[in-house]
Amino acid sequence: MCAADKPLAAVRDELRVEWYRSPIPPAKLRELMQRSDLQGWLQSAGHLALVVGTGILTYAFWRQESWLAFAVALFVYGTFSSFLPGAAVHELGHGTVFRTKWLNKLFLYLFSLPSWWNPFDYASSHTYHHRYTLHPEGDREVILPLKPTPPFRVALTLFTISLFSRPVSIFGRGGLFTAVVDTVRTALGINVPPNTPARKWLIALRADQPEEMRNVTRWARLVLLFHALVLAVTVVTGLWVLPILLSVATFIGPWWIYAVGITQHTGLRDDVADFRKCTRSVKLDPLSEFLYWRMNWHIEHHMYAGIPCYNLKRLSRELAADLPAPRTFLGAWREMRQIWKRQQTDSAYQFDVPLPPPAATARGHGADKIVQSVGDLAPRGLAR
After folding, report:
1. How far is CA 35 from CA 14, 96, 287, 357, in A?
2. What pairs with residue 173 in β-bridges?
3. In terms of CB atoms within 10 Å, which end of the chain has fewer, N or C?
4. Rounded to 5 degrees, what are φ and ψ at 196?
């Protein structure tokens, strides 16, 4: 049986990954795992303010019929909005942003609605991604090899609108049309067709976690209701810009989230029990790091996924002697392109990240729950 076809219940029974985690004093780990409502507000409300502010500007230019200014403002608005499904709902899904749990859910649902995003399906998928990172039997959220630079016709959607596809799907998230059709299918209780690896993965997850289907279906219906109300208000008021601002925006201009997000795993090794070899940390400028919800510290996030995103840079400093040096943004892209070029002549090639000398022979660290925590991510059926 192909690894991608193995039932996930069998994967959980048979696959045990003893992850290496860089040692950290328990007191320091507990300190870094502390969640903060203030930090959560700064991150969540700050990102929302950027989206709302550029959205209001876009609307104002539309009212003035200043079409060039409207196009520029819409592009910026879409660029900021595209980080909502690409970064915000990811971290909020872990439940680690706010100390107050209902605030995590409030912003998770607020950002998911206009994004056509189903947080319940994603919770199942991302739990497997963290438990079995780049082990093809248990992690089909990321499928290697990934090509860093897409064909021109696909790359063009990164700077316009992703209607049918995008270079690398975020948890099977294709373009707007695909998202709408799949949401309708889910709301009607019709499973998605198994015509892509991402959709096959979704089918496998739903078969593995049938108790989550009530939440999945209810959410899909709520999403359809929200966007139907947007359309109804549009028809009544004649404000035809509203669907663009509230239903389409996260599919407009996703070039920036793609440029930083593709660095996470591309070209690295699968089937290894060391996050330093299958994930990549990258230094970013402050604005990119903010929009990306600090997921550029990606090795650190996988090692200790229960730590809030705003503490990951501090964690990186704590573990620095035991981690590969974080790449620069351009360095990461250079590395990915060199790996891809070699893979054209050697399809089995994967880059083997060199490790700091003391770490090269180190053994795994920590099996307790605080070390292995991924926050509040796992659905009930996977929390056991």
Report:
1. 34, 6, 22, 33
2. 170
3. C
4. -140, 155
Instruction: For tokens 């943004």, name the residue.
Output: 329
The HSE-up count of residue 68 (CA atoms within 13 Å, CB side) is 0
280-290 core/surface letters (b: 16 or more CB in 10 A; e: else): bbbbbeeebbb
Rg (CA), the chain: 21
DSSP state of 362: P
Token duo for residue 96: 């680690």
Q: Any residues with CB less than 8 A from the CB of 89 and at least 6 apart, and which?
A: 108, 111, 112, 115, 117, 119, 122
Report the alpha-carbon distance of residue 78 to residue 200 in Å, rounded.
29
Q: What is the pLDDT of residues 53-73, one digit of tens each?
A: 999 999 999 999 999 999 999
CA 207 – CA 105 distance, rounded (Å):
25
Reduced to 3 states (helix: H, G, I; strand: E, B; else coil), residue 327 is strand
Let me know: does 201 contact 140? Beta carbons within 8 Å.
Answer: yes
149 closest CA partner among 141, 140, 158: 158
Q: What is the pTM of this model?
A: 0.93
